Amino acid sequence: QVQLVESGGGLVQAGGSLRLSCAASASIFRLADMGWYRQAPGKQREWVSDITRSGSTNYADSVKGRFTSSRDNAKNTMYLQMNSLKPEDTGVYYCNSVRALSHGSAFPWGRGTQVTVSS
Asked: Buried b vs exposed e over 89-118: b needs ≥16 C-beta within 10 Å?
């Protein structure tokens, strides 16, 4: 069973940057279109970004122009570069298959990584 491990979160001031990583335990990752998701305290999990297996990306309007998704299929790892962070970006960030929230996740959810942006 594929395991997803998110890392790279932390506490940062508004305007700062973080780079998140998502490592998959199996090479099936290379065949999967993947997404980043986040869940703020007291709110439902929401979609942040998609990245196809070939590297095409799509972003939620709230992060467009500030966040960049990438992946290294040889390392079974994907990344989320987050710049110009805002307090509203605070939450736990997860990776999983695309459309996981609407169609069900292809993989078990990981523990996520906490991002806290202070004002």
From this structure: bbbbbbbbbbebeeeebebeebebbebebe
As a whole number of angstroms, the distance between CA 119 and CA 112 comes to 22
**What per-residue confidence (pLDDT) applies to 26?**
87
Distances (CA, A) of 4 to 25, 52, 58, 80, 111: 7, 17, 21, 14, 8
pLDDT digits (tens, 9 = 90+) for 44-53: 999 999 999 9
CA distance 44 to 35: 16
Strand pairing class (34-39; 91-97)? antiparallel
Please compute the mean of the pLDDT values over residues 12-16 and round it to a whole number. 98
d(CA 105, CA 57): 19
Amino acid identity at 8: G
DSSP structure class, residue 76: T
